[in-house]
Structures are given as structure tokens and as C-alpha cells.
Amino acid sequence: MTTVLDDVHVRHLEQLRSRLPVIDRQGLRLDDTYVMFFAEAELMAEHARRLVAGQAAPRVLEVGLGLGVFAEQLGAYRIGGYRAVEPHPGVVELVAPRVRSALRCEVTFEVEPWQSVALPPASLDAIMYDTWPPDGHADADFARFVEHVAVPALRPGGRFSFFHSGTQLSAARTYVLDRHFPGWQAAPYRIPPADLPAAWSKPSADFLVPIAVKGDG
Length: 217
Known about the structure:
This protein is α/β, with parallel strands linked by helices. The chain contains 6 helices and 11 strands. The strands form 2 sheets. Strands 4, 5, 6, 7, 8, 9, 10 and 11 form an 8-stranded mixed sheet that branches. α5 (138-153) runs parallel beside α6 (171-180). The longest helix has 16 residues, at 138-153. The two termini are 20 Å apart.
């Protein structure tokens, strides 16, 4: 699916791209706002394991490259292909070399918002979704992504996961998952307090690792 962004998303994208990306010892920040931390590596390893373990050369899409920590965790598996969708060109410039060195497969970067990227139907085995939407649009964007991108692009048996901070999903996301992925599950994960960086800015050290599998129908 490709779509024309509305004014809210256009302004948000412009504002996002205007921020200077910097990687320091703690993680990735845009200007003075941290968006991902190296301390999340084990959390991302759990996402990677649940998405690709046991699959033969899976083709993986990551929506929101960020620090590249999730992609690096895929290096522990035999991946058939990796594609990242990241709208900030500066982030891709900083992170892409490290991702390419971690993966032994074809690697592609789309420097666009996910709404502007066309994906062939039934072409992917795993999708990891982690974006920075406009304020107030997180659940609506999630629902649209699942229905119009994830479900069509995944092969039967393909797996979907997404970043979630906290111990409970919203009613809106639960509804979307129940509708499209009956039988989905979510495992809790906690980053040990001793591992949290000084600049930790996320609302919790508790997370959920959802895993949803596309059925045959």
C-alpha cells in the first residue's frame, strides 16, 4: 500500500527530519531527545528470537530503523533478506554501515515513511514495527499498518511484532490483534535496573514482546 500523507503526517515528518541524529555511548538521540538505547539490546534480541527462530532464511522487514539494535540481533540467525523503512536520512547514514556488517544477507534501506513504501503481497516472513507517529495517532497508524501493510505482506505463517513499553496493551491495539491475528501472545520483559543508562527517558523498564502469526486463511 502507498498513500498520500495528510497534513498532520507531513508536518510531523518534516519536523522529524529537521532533528539532528547523534549516536553516543547511551544510544541514539534526535537533537536532545533519546529515541533508543543500547540497553534495549536484550529486549530486541527477544523480539528477534520470537520473530525468526526456527524459520528457514526468513525475509524480514523492520519499520523504524532507529539505533539498529534489532537488526544487529538478527545476525545470530540465518536471514534470507532484511529491509528497513526509516524516514530520517541522517539516521540511515549513521546506522546502515553497522547493520550491513552485522547481517550476512541482502540488506535494503527505504528512506521514506512506511505509508509511501509498496510491498509485494505475501513476500515477508517477519515484521518488526517501531515508529514515532504524530501525537494522538499511534493507535490509528498501528491499525492502518496492520490491516493494509502487515497482513497483506506477510506469508501464511509469517510473524509480526512491535515495540511496546509497559505491561498492558491498549484496548485499541488488542482489538486490532484479535481481529487479524487470533491467538496472538505477548511475553513480559524487564530491563534490569542496573542496566538502565543515566539518560533513560522511557516511561518504564517493563515491556511486552508481542508475537502474532498470520493464519492460512
